[in-house]
Amino acid sequence: MVKMSKVIYIDENKDTYKFDLEEDTIIYHYSINKSYDVEVNLNKEDITLNYYYNNINYDDNTYKIRINHNKSNTNSFVYNHGVNVSDNKLHYWVDGVIPKKSENCDCNQDNQIINIKNGKSKIWPNLLVDNYDVNANHSAYIGKFKESLLFYLMSRGISRKDSYKLLLEGFLLNTDSVDREKIKDFVDEINKI
Amino acid sequence: MLKITNLSTRVVDSDINILDKFNLEIGDGEIHAIMGPNGTGKSTLAKTIMGNYQYEVVKGKINFDNNDLLKLSVDERAKLGIFLSMQDPTVIDGVSNSEFIRTAINSINGEKTNLYQFIKDMESNMKDLKLDSKMTHRSLNKDFSGGEKKKNEILQLKMIKPKFIILDELDSGLDVDSLKIVSKNINNYLKDNPKTSVLIITHYPRILEYIKPDFVHVLVDGNIKKTGDIKLAHDIEKNGYEIVDGKDE
Lengths: 193, 249
Prior knowledge:
The structure holds two protein chains of two kinds.
Chain A: E1 6-10, E2 16-21, E3 25-32, E4 36-42, E5 48-57, E6 61-69, E7 75-84, E8 89-98, E9 105-115, E10 120-129, E11 134-143, H1 147-154, H2 160-173, H3 184-190
Parallel strand pairs in A: 1-3, 2-4, 3-5, 4-6, 5-7, 6-8, 7-9, 8-10, 9-11
Helix pairs in contact in A: 1-2
Chain B: E1 2-11, E2 17-26, E3 31-35, H1 42-50, E4 55-64, E5 67-68, H2 74-79, E6 82-85, E7 92-96, H3 97-109, H4 115-128, E8 139-140, H5 146-160, E9 164-168, H6 176-192, E10 197-202, H7 206-210, E11 215-220, E12 223-228, H8 230-239
Parallel strand pairs in B: 3-10, 3-11, 6-9, 9-10
Antiparallel strand pairs in B: 1-2, 1-4, 4-5, 7-8, 11-12
C-alpha cells in the first residue's frame, strides 16, 4: 500500500519556521529574495521528510535549515536550489543532525546555487552525525549551468536563450509534483530572470 | 547535402589535431558508416558537425545544403535539419521529456505545434519504440536505462523530423532486441523520408546489418584511410583495423 504524505506549502511571510513532524511529509518552500531560518524535527520512527527549497535571490540573503533526526529509522531528503541573479551574497547553511540515540537513519541533502552574474554564493553542507549506523550524503554545487546541458538542448533547435529558460524553470521548480498554481508568483518571477 | 573539405579540428586549448585534413561528401538519401578504433576522431567528427563547444576547427569547411555550417550556432544547424543522436545523452533534471521535445519542435517550425497532434504523435512513436508512456513526463534522460536513453534519442528524431541524421554509436548500450527496434524505426523513417541522409558512427558492424550503408569508411588517425561497402565492415570484424592502417585508397 502506498503511504500518503502530508503536504505543506510555505506561503506565510515569516522569517523562521519550526516543524515537529510525526508523519511522512513533503514541504514545498519557494521564496523570492528573503532570508530564512528553518528547523525540522523528525519526532517519530519510520517517517520521511522531503523538503524542496527553491529561491530566486537579488540581495544579500542567508538560508539556514536544520534537520534533526530525533528518532531512529527516520529519513530526510532536502533539495535546496537557488539562483543568485545579481552580484550579491547568497549563503546556505544546511545541517543534517543525527544524535547517538538515533539509529539507521537516512540523511540526504542536495545543494545547488546557480550564479547568473558574479554572485558571492556559499554553501555549508553539514552532516553532524554521532551514530555509526546511518546513511548520510551531501552534495554542493555553485556555478553556472554546464555548457553540456545547453549544447544538448540547442542541438535540438532550441535557441540559447530558450534553452537557458528551460534549464532555469526545471532547476527552480525542482520537482514534478509541485502544484504550480500554488506557487504562481514564483513561476512568474522565473520568467523575469 | 553535406560536404566536408580539408577539415582539421582539435579540442579547445589543445595543439593536437584530432581530425586532420578530413574529407567526406554525403549526398541526398545516402547512408554512410564510419568505423574506426578508439580515439581516431569518430565522435569528434559528429560533434564538430553539430558545433560542440569542446572542439575548434583549425581549418577547412563544412557545407550543408549550400550553408557554411561553421558560421552557424548549434541551434541554427539543428534548424537546417541536422540531428545528432548522442553517444551518451545528457541528463537534464527538472526538464520533462515532453516539454523539451515540444519546445524543440516549436523552435524548429517557428510556430506552436498543435497540442492534440503532439500528444498523438508522441504516443504513437513511443509505442513504436516500445517506450513506457510514463517517460513523457519524466525529467529528460533522468534514471533512464542505457537502452531507454538511446530509444529516447530516436523518439526525438521521429518527432523533430530531420533531414540529416548522425548516429553516434547508437548500438552501445542497446541489447539485440532494442537495437532491432530502433533500427526498424529508423528504417521506417528513411522509407517515409527517402531524401534523408545518415552518418552512422560505430565500432562494430552489428548495427550495419540492420541499417544498410551505401558506403563504409574507415577512419584512422583523423583521416579516412579506406572506403568500401558492407564487405569492408565484415573484413574489419574478421581481421581488425590493421588491414587498413596506412593504406590510402
